[in-house]
Design brief:
The chain is of the alpha+beta class. The chain has 3 domains: about 30 residues; about 50 residues, no CATH class; about 35 residues, no CATH class. It contains 2 helices and 8 strands, in the order αβββαβββββ. Strands 2-1-3 form a 3-stranded antiparallel sheet, with no helix packed on it. A 3-stranded antiparallel sheet has the order 7-6-8, with no helix packed on it. Strands 4-5 form a two-stranded antiparallel sheet. The radius of gyration is 35 Å and the shape is elongated.
């Protein structure tokens, strides 16, 4: 059993420790929730110039988009009227494969497997193409 003086000093020390721990807890901020807002930034011509999802965001004109749009930003060309506009891939021509025209030889039922002139294969067919 502790003597009265030692016991009081121990209680006093524990009380000071509790005060100290309360002060430390008051100084430490609780973790902040990360709020995501998917932003796409664009210039005066509607060209996409950047994107961000959390603070600190970039500066400038932006629209808020869905997470899917944000993750697939490479599919979009511009921002117009407050919306993302899809890229349109147009090479300027179309090519249609035409079976039976003898422009190149392929493995039968596999038009993507072209045979060179010096190659032989038992089951082949002829294809050609038409541009339009």
């Amino acid at each position: 059993m502790l003597k009265n003086g030692v016991h009081l000093n121990l209680l006093k020390s524990m009380n000071e420790l509790e005060k100290f721990l309360a002060e430390v807890a008051a100084l430490v901020d609780a973790p902040k929730e990360i709020v995501k807002e998917y932003r796409v930034f664009y210039d005066d011509n509607g060209e996409i110039i950047g994107q961000s999802m959390t603070e600190p965001h970039l500066e400038g004109s932006y629209i808020v988009v869905t997470e899917e749009e944000y993750n697939n930003i490479h599919k979009y060309a511009k921002v117009k009227d407050g919306e993302l506009k899809l890229k349109v891939f147009n090479p300027g021509y179309k090519r249609q494969l035409i079976p039976g025209v003898a422009q190149f030889t392929v493995v039968k039922n596999h038009a993507g497997i072209l045979l060179e002139q010096d190659e032989t294969y038992d089951d082949t067919e002829q294809y050609g193409y038409r541009d339009y």
